[in-house]
Specification:
Blueprint: H1 12-17, E1 22-28, H2 32-41, E2 46-49, E3 52-57, H3 60-71, E4 75-81, H4 85-93
Antiparallel strand pairs: 1-3, 1-4, 2-3
Length: 102
């Protein structure tokens, strides 16, 4: 649910599975929009949230070397994890969940 509208339906595991396999978060000291453009040229959906680029990919271990080839020394940090329900909300709405915010 987002602002009273159903945006996705399923069990928690089904919802997490619906956004590919892994979530990658990058802090980058270069031009974040250029990096985003390069990733999207490769068919990877990206979002920029709180100075981080967030990507949903099926296999992070295959994408991360490509990120380093593109971004080089500009990467300040990179991490990947399995998606949480917060990641699902971000994926479907394009923004973070804030409890009590309308």
């Amino acid at each position: 649910m987002d602002r009273g509208e159903l945006i996705a339906d399923g069990t928690p595991d089904e919802l997490k599975d619906s956004i590919d396999g892994d979530v990658i978060k990058i802090r980058y000291e270069g031009d974040m929009n250029s990096l985003r453009t390069e990733m999207e040229k490769r068919g990877i959906k990206t979002m920029i949230v709180n100075d981080e680029m967030v990507m949903n990919v099926s296999k992070a271990e295959e994408i991360i070397p490509e990120i380093f080839r593109i971004a080089g020394n500009g990467i300040k940090s990179i991490m990947y994890k399995e998606p949480t329900l917060e990641d699902v909300f971000l994926y479907y709405t394009g923004r973070e969940y804030r409890e009590g915010r309308r």
